[in-house]
Every structure is written in structure tokens, then in C-alpha cells.
Amino acid sequence: MTEVSMAKDAVPAAGEPLVVLDNVNKHFGALHVLQDIDLTIARGEVVVVIGPSGSGKSTLCRAINRLEPIDSGRITLDGKPLPAEGRELAKLRADVGMVFQSFNLFAHKTVLQNVTLGQVKVRKKDKAAAETSARALLDRVGVGNQADKYPAQLSGGQQQRVAIARALAMEPKVMLFDEPTSALDPEMINEVLEVMQQLARDGMTMVVVTHEMGFARSAANRVVFMADGQIVEETTPDQFFTNPRSDRAKDFLSKILHH
Amino acid sequence: MDIISDYDTQILDAFWVTVKLTLLSGLFSLIWGTLLAAMRVSPVPLMRGFGAVYVNVIRNVPLTVIIVFCSLALADVFGVTMGAQGNFDALYFRLAVLGLSAYTAAFVCEALRSGINTVPVGQAEAARAIGLSFTQVLTIIVLPQAFRSVVGPLTNVLIALTKNTTVAAAIGVAEAALLMKEMIENEAQLLLISAIFALGFIVLTLPTGLFLGWVGKKVAVKR
């Protein structure tokens, strides 16, 4: 990962590929929101996707578990192509953890029920085993004492950590984070980022769409910079932040880093 | 006040039929209305189409026409017996329940569908993201939240249903309105009789409304 010469394909994915996007295209009406996206994410890799708003980075993230269907191209997870709809797709989604910008905890369920639901209904675990692992996960993300509360009673940071626990409870192969800290008050961002840092250190495969440049620098194996529906630059965090090659990336960084 | 003592058991019996009509039709229309709402939000175009046509036809036909259709067409022409061989009281009671349920279900469906629209789309996305199937997303995540937000509108539907049971008099079901008609013909105390029956319905619907209003507040989903 040291020899970096071209903007694209600069960093070969280390290890075996887990998520592969091959020539993926998507339109929202006239807007070509994903343009010929090729991206390979290796097992255990942390890929941070950054870019200006409207660049397609959230759509990219959501396409990986088919919350956004794509128009053309191929996405494979662990060697298998994404199924179109139905039971097969549901099974695949269970293997892909997703954390949303707006948390999306089930509002009518307690924190504990949020984390046990998928284990019981999808993984068919018995309730006691699901609760044991749910409590362990809630402890791990630091909200173990909130288990019996409802989401609306928690702060944003706590809710997002519960959402991470809910996704982890499915024992996913890869975790997708769609701007997980964008809806948080500034003082709550760090508690969520710390959980994500720990997850990255534990070897979880992660795709993180974020504006947190500090997190990108410290936790990412690779930074993918998107603009106008294209991957403009794909490199190590060091390389990207100290010596971006594309003008678009230079422009973006100058706007967010120097003030 | 002779009239009350003369008719006391009859009045109670008649209102008991009203209550039975209301409860049974309420139950069946809740089930059928929920299924219709599920069809109207389903990804299968045929189901969506059926749900939309059903609701828009049934909702716009007068209840009297539906009840009389149940009696004349289903029972008299097609010989539907609804499991009540020879027992005409039971037959017409069941036909009335059928007609009331079919009619009320359209309103339950639309109330529930508006409730489904109040559930943020992120709830369903998060549910799909952990691998729940369409049916599971609907029954575990979306409908429970939808129901909690439409207790008020469903209460209105139930109160309307309670009063709509009077249409069953059109096919001779011995509920409150039929007795009222009979009493008005036999006795010369129009105002008193009207007042008795008006009061009877208020006794049924007012506590229902208050109770369900309390339930609605209690189960509301906090976001």
C-alpha cells in the first residue's frame, strides 16, 4: 500500500474481496447519481467514503444492501451477487449491518427489544440467548444501563450506539455507516466515533460515509473520494489528506480543512 | 313512564343485538380492513389494484344498498345460508354482520393506511436492513406503529359503525332501530321514544369514545 501512482486503483484491496461493485450505475430521474462505480472492499478493511453533498456517497452505501436498487452493473457480497427481491435478499441483508444518519431505532420497542428483534425473528435464536448477547453488545457500546428505555428517551449519541449494537447483533460480515454522526450534537459525535474506532480495531469490515475527517485519518485503511457520482480518488488517508492528486479533492479539502 | 316498564326487556334485548352487531362487525372489519391496508401498500400490483378498487367501490355505495344486496342477492337469489339453515333470525343477523363488516372495512383500511403513512420510512428501511421479510416488516414494525397513531380515527369508525347497525333494520334484524319503529307505530309518544333510543346509543358510544381516547394517548409512539 505504499506505491501510489494513479488516482484510481491506487490501493489494491488487501486480502480477499468481500464486497465488489462492478461498473455500477444508478439514476434518480435525469440525475446520474452513480457513474460506472468500481470498488472492491476486502475482508477486514475500513473504507471511508467522503465527498461533497450530492456526490452519491450515501447512495453508494445504500446500494450495497440494495436499499437503493441499481440500474446496471453488478454488486457481489462474499462472491455472491445481490439477489433482486424476496427471501434471498432478506438473508443477504441480515449479513450486512447498516447504521443510518437518523438512527431509525424501532420507536415502539425498547432498546433491548431493538437489539434482540433481528436475532429472534431472522436468526431464529431463542429469546434468552438473544437477550444475553444483546446485553453484552449494549455494554460494549456503553449503553447497557438504558436497556429498558424507549429510543425517544435516549440522547442522539446513545441512540446511535444502540443502532450500532442492533446491527452488530446480526453478526454481519460488513457494516455500512451512512453518515452516522451527521445528525448528532457536536458533544455526542465522539462517543459514537469511539465505538466505531473500536470496531475497526477489532477487524470489522466497514464502509463509512462521513464528514469526520479525523475518523478518516485515524481509522481508515483507504479513503474513497466521490464527486458528481464518480469515484475521483481512491488512496490511503495519509496520501489523500497530505497530497491529494485531483483538483476536485484539493478544492474539497481546502474548503473543509482551512478555516 | 309506563312505556319503559312495558318495553324494558324488549329495549334491552334490542340494544343487546345492536351491541352484538357492533362487536362482531367491528372485529371482522378490523381484520379485513387490516388485510386490505396490507394489500394497498404491498409491492404486488394486483393486490394494490384489488385493494384500491374494493375501497373505492364499497366506500361510495350507500350502506343500505350493501345490506339489502346481502339480503336480496346473496340470500334470496344465490341461496347463501351462512351456516344458518332455516333459522331466519340467525341468517339475517349474519348477513347484516357481513354487510356491515364489508362496508366498515373500507374505512378501517383507509384510516390504517393514513397511519402507515405516519410511520417514518426509515423504520421500514432499518427493519429491512436487519433482514426482515416484507410481511415481518409490516406486521412487526409498521402496522403496530400505524395502529397506535390511528386509535382516534378508528374510534370514529367504531362509533359510526355502532350507529350504522341501525341500517340492519332494513332487512328485519331485531336491533334497536327496528324496535324503535315498532314502538313509534304502537305508542303515541314520539319524543319520549326517540329520546330513549338516542340515549341508548349515547350510552354505548360515549364511554367507548372516552375509553379509546385514553387508550390512544397511552399507546402513542414517542419519537
Short description:
The complex is a heterodimer of chains A (about 260) and B (about 220). Chain A has about 260 residues and is an alpha/beta fold. Chain A is about 35% helix and about 25% strand.
Any overview of this molecule?
The complex is a heterodimer of chains A (259) and B (223). With 259 residues, chain A is α/β, with parallel strands linked by helices. In chain A, 36% of the residues lie in helices and 24% in strands. Chain A has helices at residues 57-63, 87-94, 111-121, 127-140, 156-168, 186-201, 213-219, 237-242, 247-257; strands at 17-28, 31-42, 46-50, 72-77, 80-81, 96-99, 174-178, 205-209, 222-227, 230-235. In chain A, strands 6-7-8-3-9-10 form a six-stranded mixed β-sheet, sandwiched between helices. Chain A has a four-stranded antiparallel β-sheet with strand order 2-1-4-5, covered by helices on one side. In chain A, strand 1 (17-28) and strand 2 (31-42) form a beta hairpin. In chain A, helix 4 crosses helix 5 and helix 5 (156-168) packs parallel to helix 6. The longest helix of chain A has 16 residues, at 186-201. Mean pLDDT of chain A is 90; it is low at 1-13. Chain B has a single domain, classed as MetI-like fold (Orthogonal Bundle). In chain B, 80% of the residues lie in helices and 0% in strands. Chain B contains nine helices and no strands. Chain B has helices at 2-40, 45-58, 63-77, 88-118, 121-129, 134-149, 151-164, 176-186, 190-219. Chain B is mainly α and 223 residues long. In chain B, helix 1 packs across helix 4, helix 2 (45-58) packs across helix 4 (88-118) and helix 5 (121-129) runs antiparallel to helix 6 (134-149). Classes of the chains: A alpha/beta (259), B mainly alpha (223). At the A-B interface, helix 2, strand 6, helix 3 and helix 5 of A face helix 5 and helix 6 of B.
